[in-house]
């Protein structure tokens, strides 16, 4: 299978790297925002979308969990990208020349120690690859970008310092979105089921809803809450469990969850990426 895969950012972004590593037969399609990325899949300009949802250092990517349920799309896969942060400068520049480093708000905390130790001021950019492109265009040796080796290759920059991230196993998790769901069992490994739900307004509803997973031996690997509708009254939960909806224990747990919720929707069923089980 081939086609186009949309990602947020410019060519050279970590989303681009995720597309190259996970879906090498697809042509990457850069998009300005996550909304634009999801829209490209919805309207058929792209067959798949690569969406970053969390980083092992920074945490959850803002707004994504609220965007995905409203996107009309389905999660059909996941991939983990080892995020190496590099200080990229114009050809001929040295580390000692750099006074400012430009990067996305998510990436700046990931290399805060290096920036502080070298008296480099971090400056927020809308996208790491865009920062690389703009540093290349400016030609100023005092300005650098925080980006991938892929971005250095694309924009003709030198790697002034490699792998400067604070944590040696800095990793970003991406999910692959598609217009149509695929609940089939794929591969020989574990399957993951993701869903969103809102509990009924009864005492201990969340506690009771979660009890079905414990009693049926279903491993819940993620449970996150966020507000919906701009009020404090409506809380939606995003969850992931190991297993397939047709597994007997998963089916029983979901039936019990459904009893205590007023909204439950499967977001996706997909093979667990091997790196999910690594100690990142």
TrEMBL record:
Give yes or no: UniProt keyword DNA-binding.
no
Q: Name one Pfam family in it.
A: PDT
A single GO molecular function, which one?
Answer: prephenate dehydratase activity
Keyword terms: Amino-acid biosynthesis, Aromatic amino acid biosynthesis, Lyase, Phenylalanine biosynthesis
Q: In which pathway does it act?
A: Amino-acid biosynthesis; L-phenylalanine biosynthesis; phenylpyruvate from prephenate: step 1/1
Query: Which CDD domains does its entry note?
Result: ACT_CM-PDT, PBP2_Ct-PDT_like
This protein's name: prephenate dehydratase
Organism listed in the record? Loktanella gaetbuli
Q: What is the lineage of its organism?
A: Bacteria, Pseudomonadati, Pseudomonadota, Alphaproteobacteria, Rhodobacterales
């Amino acid at each position: 299978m081939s086609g186009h895969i949309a990602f947020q950012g410019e060519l050279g972004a970590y989303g681009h790297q995720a597309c190259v590593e996970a879906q090498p037969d697809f042509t990457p399609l850069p998009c300005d925002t996550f909304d634009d990325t999801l829209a490209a899949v919805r309207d058929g300009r792209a067959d798949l979308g690569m969406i970053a949802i969390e980083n092992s250092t920074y945490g959850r990517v803002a707004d994504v969990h609220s965007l995905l349920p409203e996107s009309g799309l389905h999660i059909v896969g996941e991939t983990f990208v080892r995020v190496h942060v590099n200080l990229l400068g114009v050809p001929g520049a040295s580390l000692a020349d750099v006074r400012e480093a430009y990067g996305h708000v998510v990436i700046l905390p990931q290399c805060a120690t290096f920036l502080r130790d070298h008296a480099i001021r971090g400056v927020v950019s809308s996208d790491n690859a865009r920062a690389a492109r703009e540093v290349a265009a400016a030609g100023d040796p005092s300005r650098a970008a925080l980006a991938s080796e892929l971005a250095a290759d694309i924009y003709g920059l030198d790697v002034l310092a490699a792998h400067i991230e604070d944590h040696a196993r800095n990793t970003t998790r991406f999910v692959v979105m598609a217009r149509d769901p695929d609940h089939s069992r794929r591969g020989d490994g574990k399957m993951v089921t993701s869903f969103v739900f809102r509990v009924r307004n009864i005492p201990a509803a969340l506690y009771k809803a979660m009890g079905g997973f414990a009693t049926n031996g279903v491993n819940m690997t993620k449970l996150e809450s966020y507000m919906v509708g701009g009020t404090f009254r409506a809380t939606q939960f995003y969850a992931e469990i190991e297993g397939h909806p047709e597994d007997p224990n998963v089916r029983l747990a979901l039936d019990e969850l459904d009893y205590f919720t007023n909204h439950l929707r499967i977001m996706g069923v997909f093979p667990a990426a091997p790196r999910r089980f690594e100690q990142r």
